[in-house]
Amino acid sequence: MEKLTVVKIGGKVINEEAALDAFLKKFALIKGKKILIHGGGNIASDWQRKMGVEPKMIQGRRITDKDTIEVVTMIYAGLNKKIVAKLQGLDNQAIGLSGADLNVIKSHKRMNLVIDYGYVGDIEGVNAGVINALMNLEATPVVCALTHDNSGQLLNTNADTIASAVATGMSESYDVDLVYCFEQPGVLSDFENKIVIPVIVKKDYDGLKNSGTISDGMIPKIDNAFAAIDAGVGQVKICHFDAIDTVHAAEYSGTVICQK
Ligand SMILES: Nc1ncnc2c1ncn2[C@@H]1O[C@H](COP(=O)(O)OP(=O)(O)O)[C@@H](O)[C@H]1O
Ligand SMILES: CC(=O)N[C@@H](CCC(=O)OP(=O)(O)O)C(=O)O
């Protein structure tokens, strides 16, 4: 099967121009088909605060009321265009997408009887055929954290989850490598000394959570990684954004998440 590299970057990388440029320079050099998924959650939070609104997050998900969906739409879609322009500047033919464009990712508004998440979308499906057609035009899809309900409403969707769903959707026709890039060298067992856990398998995961070694935003990230693996993605890597050029190389020094 042909190799496909699906990479996700978060807002902390995007927010620092030098980090984003350094990452994109290396991403642009990845050979073969590739897809970039990006977040921007901390940038949305900064703008909410500038507007006098304190962001509300529950279990890593933003409570997205009517005003907030307007704000995140402008921010995530705007960042998407900025990243596409930078990739074009690096001679990478890129196409920016929200889930609404070409109906790439359909979702439904999250139904939760206890917490009203507002305009947050839970993914129903990824249109792998359309993504494939774009890649066959030599374009690299760049996907932001917005999906849609097919009735005219955009919905805010966690970018880690989008990456997992896109990787899963493409895994029927490709040998997919899903890579989560962030600001640490990998999943760490020791934060102070930056000791990376090289491999995490399912049977060890609960212990790592229970001991507090893995916490906060890393829990949904690894949950999304295992969801992708369970659905057919070969393996998932979690590494520093600066290490994106080593993901297919022997010197890779980040974390690999695998079934067993
Ligand atoms: N064991 C761990 N190793 C690395 N990061 C961890 C670990 N446990 C918790 N984290 C936290 O998880 C964060 C990554 O999750 P998140 O902030 O959601 O990333 P992103 O915005 O890139 O999606 C790291 O910045 C770190 O603070
Ligand atoms: C529903 C929900 O929480 N959506 C996320 C989407 C952005 C995101 O995931 O950004 P990072 O990858 O940079 O964290 C949010 O608004 O924060």
UniProtKB/TrEMBL annotation:
<keyword id="KW-0547">Nucleotide-binding</keyword>
<dbReference type="InterPro" id="IPR001048">
    <property type="entry name" value="Asp/Glu/Uridylate_kinase"/>
</dbReference>
<dbReference type="GO" id="GO:0003991">
    <property type="term" value="F:acetylglutamate kinase activity"/>
</dbReference>
<dbReference type="InterPro" id="IPR036393">
    <property type="entry name" value="AceGlu_kinase-like_sf"/>
</dbReference>
<feature type="domain" description="Aspartate/glutamate/uridylate kinase">
    <location>
        <begin position="3"/>
        <end position="239"/>
    </location>
</feature>
<dbReference type="InterPro" id="IPR004662">
    <property type="entry name" value="AcgluKinase_fam"/>
</dbReference>
<keyword id="KW-0055">Arginine biosynthesis</keyword>
<keyword id="KW-0067">ATP-binding</keyword>
<keyword id="KW-0418">Kinase</keyword>
<comment type="pathway">
    <text>Amino-acid biosynthesis; L-arginine biosynthesis; N(2)-acetyl-L-ornithine from L-glutamate: step 2/4.</text>
</comment>
<keyword id="KW-0808">Transferase</keyword>
<keyword id="KW-0028">Amino-acid biosynthesis</keyword>
<protein>
    <recommendedName>
        <fullName>Acetylglutamate kinase</fullName>
        <ecNumber>2.7.2.8</ecNumber>
    </recommendedName>
</protein>
<dbReference type="Pfam" id="PF00696">
    <property type="entry name" value="AA_kinase"/>
</dbReference>
